[in-house]
Structure formats: C-alpha cells, structure tokens
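Protocol step 4 of 6: structure prediction from sequence.
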Amino acid sequence: MLSGIGLKNFKCFNDQFMTLAPLTLLAGINGLGKSSVIQALLSLRQSYIHKTLKEELQIKGKLVDLGAIDDVFCAYASGEELELVIELREKSQFKDAENVREYTFRPNDKRKSFDRVDISESDEGLFSGLFGCGFAYLSAERLGPRTYHGIPDPVQHDYNPIGNNGEFCAYLLDKNSDLGVLCDKLRINDEYGADTLHGIKSQSELWLSKIGQKVRIDIRNHPKLDLVNMLFSFMLGDVPSAKYRPTHVGFGLSYALPIFVAALTARSGDLLLIENPEAHLHPRGQSVMGEFLARAAAGGIQCIVETHSDHLLNGIRLAVKHGIISPEETTINFFTHGETFPSATVMNPQIDADGRVNFWPDDFFDEWEKNLLELL
C-alpha cells in the first residue's frame, strides 16, 4: 500500500507531505487541494499506462485532464521543478531510498508539457495498486440513473475498468455476478442469516439494501449492441415488486452501486480512489457507506476518499469503536488555509480506539454545532 504522498509545486501545494493509510479521508473546505491529491495520483497512473512516465507527466488523458502547464504548476512555486513523491507502506521513514520514489518534472513551454528530469531509475512495479490492474477511480461526477450502460474497450479497461464516472459498473457487475467476494470483511449475511449469498451481485444487493429499501437487481446484457441495462425491484416481505428502470428510482442507488461493485470486485493490495461517496445518500446511507469503506480497508483494499460528510466520518468512527478496523489503519488529512493565500496546509486529527477524534480544527465537520449554538 501507499503510505504517503508528497507534492511540491503542484497546483496549490508549495511543498506538502501527507500520510496515507489503508483508509484515508481527505476533508476540508472547498478549493484547498483535496482533489489535487487524487489528481496527482491519476496523472502518474495515466502517464504509466500511456508509457510516458519515464519521459513526461501526462496532464491530459483518460483519467484526468488538468488543463495547461500554468494550471498545474504552483503559482508561487519555490524553484523550477514539480515533484511528486510516493512512499510505500512497508517502511515508515520518509526519506528511506528503498521505499520512496520521487518523480521530478520541469515545465517545457515549447512542448506544453512537464518533462521528466530526475535520472534515478524508478521501480513502478512496487506500486501494484497505483500502476497495476488492481485499480479503480470514481469521480464526484458519477453517472446518474441511465436506461443503458456501455461496455469498456480494452484501452479503457487498462486505465480504469469501472469508468471514471461509473459508466461500466453494470457491465462489471454482470461479468462478475456469480464470482465470490474476495474480501472477507465485506461479506455480509441477509436478514435471515443466510451465509450462501456471497456472489458479487448478491452482496451488492445486500449492501444497497442497507442504505435504503431491500432491493434486487436484474441485469440484461445486449452483446450485439455493446450495451447493458439494469432494472431494480424492491422486496415487499418475500415478494418482489415490479421491475423499474434506474430513472424511476432516484439517484442514490445509481451513485452508490459503483462504489460497492468497485470494492466487492477488488482484492487485497488494490487501490480505490473515490470522490464524495456520500453523494445523493440519506444520512443513514452515508453512515453505512463509511462502515463499508472501513471494512474494505480492513480487508487490505486501500481506499483514498474525498468527503464532505460528517455522517460518513461517523460511520468510520463507529467501525473503529466496534473493532472492524483499527485506529492505525485510518488517517484523516484535513485541508485548511496556509500562511499565505492561496496556499493550503494539512492537519491530522486522529481517531482513537473508542472512535473519538483527538481534536477538532475549525471547519472540521463542526457546522452542525455552530448552527445549533446560533439557534440556541
């Protein structure tokens, strides 16, 4: 797993190192660099898949489009180079040459690119989650309910098999429907205690049911059209309702399903990058999503999550309190204003074994209390 990332002269970061854990939360007010952390990892991956990482950083590609050089290079940069540093989990000392890989680039105005300038030979094979096939990224701009979904081509599969917007979720669910869930921590039983429903489709239905009504998914593949469609039905006792198109059951199921499928099809050592997993979910569903991500991380699937949800945080805190995941397997990177505008700095509130947070910086999920005090 990745245990840290350093960003130097990358977007709003002059020089910042952040600790990563099996479950990492990126939190803070808008516009202070949470998405930039994910974008840095995406740009490294798409450069590696595009086979250009040894020559240049791909800032425009299938995973992320960062615009022009001036959009990426820090406006108040110290020096002329951009550095992206990734650290392995096996060791904790940041500057240990055996576990740290530094990628250094210099803006090339003529080629409108970032050229690689460091001469050290980097072993990308060490970072199997980031550069290997065990990878999934889901952006905040996931697809809402759709009548039909597409099928990924081989190139897209190399970059991100589930699709940046979750557009290939239905295909992956159909393809892996009867396969067993590899992560033991993610397997749950239905309300009757049955322990045989361990296929990915059945487990996806059970997790969706925890965020709302008890649901069933009917998937229909149309290979000659390269299309897949899904229908949802709801259990009324033991009797299923009529089957409905996703466009008739709201946004929550369509937004949550790709997250469940991405983790349920993953194995230990894989990497999931997820933006706003709480989108379109009821507070109860957001808390359930926090527990789900904690279970995935405890099972060896690294999850780096950008969130604005105190309910999702509380779901993770409860997972720690209940022994699902240890405090050491979680970390919070809270982004706040730096000493000079528009720089950002990162603070690290910690969750203890009882699920308590050791300190609450201003703007760290405290708006409910601020508003309540004003109402009182």
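Step 5 (inspection) to follow. Residues 91-97 have pLDDT under 50 and may be disordered.
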